[in-house]
Structure formats: structure tokens, C-alpha cells
Amino acid sequence: MRINDLLDQIREICNHPWKREVLFQDRTRWQRLWSSMDVIADAQSAIDEYNSLTDCGYQGGGYLHIYGLLQALFIQQDAVSNLNKALFDQKIDFKGEYPSLFRIREQRNDSIGHPTNRGNGRSFHGINRSSMSKRSMKLMSFDSKPISKVNIAVINLMENILMQETDVNKILTMVLAKIQEELNTHKAKFRGNTLSKLFTDELGFEISKLYQGVGQDHELIELVELNFKSIRNTYEKIKDGLTHRYCSVEALPGVKNVTDLLDYIFIRLNTNLLTDKTNDDYELLVFIDALKHNINLLKNMVIEIDQEFDE
Question: 311, exposed or middle or buried, with CB in 10 Å at 0-12, 13-18, 19+?
């Protein structure tokens, strides 16, 4: 699978409401994650652009192209490491785990990163301009001790591109598998424990009994209050269940809109129907109708959520 295709799948899982809410609780982690994914893709665009060149010798803008390629390879590696840091709080050990990528980093540092003062005066480097091509170049290196020692190394640029693509692909594949497993494990906690079972016929019956409080004085107030409290308790259990699944109801904007409205309706009904009963029966009917309507909306949303967690 290509790097950009893997990134698309990683983005999709990170945008799952539960995963997104978990990540968003740490803003530094959140910004690092999305910056890293964008930079991986941007660097890949630069690498692909280099691949499309016919040649890049000294007379054909070679320095600009080679500088750009080596920098793109380097910052893509940094972005992959920071992606791993954002998701798993661990950076990539290139030297220990991916020696090919580490070699590319060292070649970049020698040739275009710190060529005139490598290792605080340990060595000095320069590109042999006559050797420059799209495929490779020669790097001349001078060690400070002994000062007379000169090394000439061939840097195979096209080979570096292929090695980086292979290793970055491997890392992103592991990242994808790990976050997919995290999502699957989270969903499995709630499999079979459906929230929609709380929307019973009894709940509908209790809502219908609220209408008996309209137009009455106080003879039915205890019955109305009993049903109202039962409805609200069921509603709070549903909200708690959603919070356990998604860390916060805010993770689901559509659900959040409905629960915000229901929270307001419960407050108004508690006041106008029970504690300080209004004389405006039409107002009470409007709020009870709104309660019934929005409970049904929430039910349909919860059924879809249950289906996702039972997959």
C-alpha cells in the first residue's frame, strides 16, 4: 500500500469520534498528530516530484533538487517519528530499529545539513558537483584528525528513496494496525451491551403520563413527578453510556445538539410542570411534545451507535 493510502486510513481512524475525543484532550498531542500527517504527505509530494525529474546535474538545478530531496527525506522521517510520539508517546529509534533510514539521515547531515562543521569540527564535507545526477552523487569528506585523510563516498539517491519508502511504509502499516486494534478493543468492551434497550415501551408510557399534569391542579402531581423522575433517570443513563463509549457526548455533534435541547427541556419541565407549575397549558404541551420528539431522535441515533459497536 502506498504511503498516502496508509495515511488516509490512519486519518480515518483518528477521526473516529472516540479516538478523536481521546486525542483532543491533549492539545499538544493533537497538533503534533495532524502536523505530522500533513508533513509526511507534503514530503512525499516533494519526493515524488524529484522522481519525475528527467535529470538534475550541476547545470540543471542539481543543487536545489538534491538539497530538496535530502531535506524532504529527513523531515518525512521526523514527521513519522512525531506521528508515533503523538499516538503512542514513543519516538522512532532510527539507529537501532531502522539503520537504512538512519544512514539516510547521516548522509543528509554530512552533505547538506552541517557539511562545514560536522560533529563540532570532527569532519567537513562537500558534494562533487561533476558527479551530480538524478541517481547519485559523490560526497567528499575530510576528517580533522588526521587532517590529510580524505574519503569519497557515493550516495545513491534513488536507492535512498526506495529504502525510505519501504521502511516508512512498514512503520505506517504498524501504526495503522495498532490504532485499529485499539479501536476494536474499545468497541469490544460494549459489544452486546446495547443502549437502545433503555428506550422501552415503559419509557413511552411514562412520557404519555406527563400529559396528565396539563390542565390539572395538584391531584395528580405525585404521579406526574414519579414518571418525570423515571424518564430523567433513564435519560441520564443513556448519556452516561454515550460518555463511556466516546469519552464525551461532545464527540458526537448531532447527539450533542439533541442532548443540549433535552437538558433544557428537562429543566423547564421540572420548573413549569412540578415545582412552580405554570398556568400556560399550551407551553406545557409544547415542552412535553418536544421531550417526546427529541427522545425519539436520540433513540434513532443510539440505535446507529449500537450497530457500530456490535460490528
Answer: exposed
Which of 25-39, 211-225, 238-252 has the lowest average pLDDT? 211-225
Regarding whether 274 and 224 lie in a shared domain, the answer is: yes
Q: What's the CA gap between 57 and 138, in Å, rounded? A: 12
258 and 235 together in one domain: yes
- The pTM for the full model equals 0.89
Residue with cell 459489544: 191
Q: Is the pLDDT of residue 60 over 70?
A: no
**Domain encompassing residue 228:** 196-309
SS (H, E, C) 139-205: EEEEECCCCCCEEEEEEEHHHHHHHHHHHHHHHHHHHHHHHHHHHHHHHHCCCCCCCHHHCCHHHHH
pLDDT digits (tens, 9 = 90+) for 261-286: 999 999 999 998 888 877 888 998 99
Same domain, 25 and 102: yes
208, 266: one domain: yes
Task: For 141, list phi and psi in degrees, rounded to 5.
Answer: -125, 135
Cβ count within 10 A of residue 43: 24
Last residue in a domain, options 144, 161, 188: 188
Name the pairing type of β-strands 150-156 and 123-128: unpaired
Q: Mutual orientation of helices 99-108 and 62-88 as an angle, nearest 10°?
A: 130
Confidence of residue 58 (pLDDT cuts 50, 70, 90): low
What cell does 16 get? 473516529
The per-residue pLDDT for range 209-241, each reduced to its tens digit, is 898 878 766 567 788 889 999 999 999 999 999
